[in-house]
């Protein structure tokens, strides 16, 4: 139970209330024109269907309008960094009876990675290693070294947020509790994650616990939308803790959990022979 925080997605609830202002985008370059999304031609249509001109609208996920092009890749191969030795070094710490044994594999992680080319490829080679270490640090903490697929006692909790049910309506009999490497939770995360990845997150949330590639895709989706830009902009590992579970862990909320996440991160940085950088806590 210590590995799966049943309140992990509380911060995600807070984020959805200000979704158009909390996703930070690091983007530069030429603008691409095109519009038939309901916004005027000089406005961007964000990934959530809102019109505006800031990076929140014109950056990551921008659908139409003067969208910003993504930052240039550094050419790093994530596959070469996330080796069998690195990946199995995490999963091997889970006991043989763990439900995640055989479910979470390096192959399905790499399959999911194909849809997220910016992950681990922004900045210097050391920046890439740090982002990879940060991602897997949270995965290890959330799932007990990829032991758990579903949140313990998740079926006993109500993850249907009524304030977002008009946009992401909860389906009767479906549970939106934590599943997958990042323990995706709440209807307002299952809905857009499914739309982005290509599954019905509201009617079929269970697929996150039965299809390993989709499961890893939801973790990468959440990371790229809520953690990637903060981390690659130099805010440090602490910013990713705040994005994932800051409402409960940061500012003294649960210093033990923060320390555990930082320990995983520094351990994986050491394995990848990279300095973990500054601002590790929150």
UniProtKB/TrEMBL annotation:
Keyword Hydrolase in the entry? The reply is yes
Q: Which GO terms describe its cellular component?
A: vacuole
Which compartments is it annotated to reside in? Vacuole
Disulfide-linked positions:
39-51, 44-58, 98-147, 160-170, 250-282
Example GO molecular function: chitin binding
The EC number of this protein is 3.2.1.14
Protein name according to UniProt? chitinase
Please give the organism. Penstemon smallii
Q: What is the lineage of its organism?
A: Eukaryota, Viridiplantae, Streptophyta, Embryophyta, Tracheophyta
């Amino acid at each position: 139970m210590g590995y799966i925080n049943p309140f992990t997605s509380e911060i995600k609830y807070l984020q959805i209330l200000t979704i158009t202002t909390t996703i930070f985008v690091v983007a530069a370059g030429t603008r691409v024109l095109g519009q038939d999304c309901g916004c005027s031609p000089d406005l961007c249509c964000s990934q959530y269907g809102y019109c505006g001109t800031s990076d929140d609208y014109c950056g990551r996920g921008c659908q139409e309008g003067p969208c910003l092009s993504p930052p240039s890749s550094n050419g790093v191969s994530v596959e070469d960094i996330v080796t069998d030795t690195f990946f199995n070094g995490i999963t091997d710490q889970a006991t043989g009876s763990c439900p995640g044994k055989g479910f979470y594999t390096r192959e399905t992680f790499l399959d999911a990675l194909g849809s997220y080319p910016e992950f681990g490829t922004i900045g210097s080679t050391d920046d890439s290693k740090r982002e990879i270490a940060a991602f897997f640090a949270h995965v290890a903490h959330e799932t007990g070294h990829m032991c758990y697929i579903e949140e313990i006692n998740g079926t006993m909790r109500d993850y249907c947020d009524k304030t977002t049910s008009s946009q992401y309506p909860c389906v009767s009999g479906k549970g939106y509790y934590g599943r997958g490497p990042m323990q995706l939770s709440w209807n307002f995360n299952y809905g857009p994650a499914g739309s982005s990845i290509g599954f019905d997150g509201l009617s079929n949330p269970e697929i996150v616990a039965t299809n390993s590639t989709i499961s890893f895709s939801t973790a990468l989706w959440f990371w790229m939308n809520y953690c990637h830009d903060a981390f690659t902009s130099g805010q440090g590992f602490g910013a990713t803790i705040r994005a994932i579970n800051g409402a409960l862990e940061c500012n003294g909320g649960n210093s033990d959990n923060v320390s555990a996440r930082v320990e995983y991160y520094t351990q994986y940085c050491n394995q990848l022979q990279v300095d973990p950088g500054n601002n590790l806590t929150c």
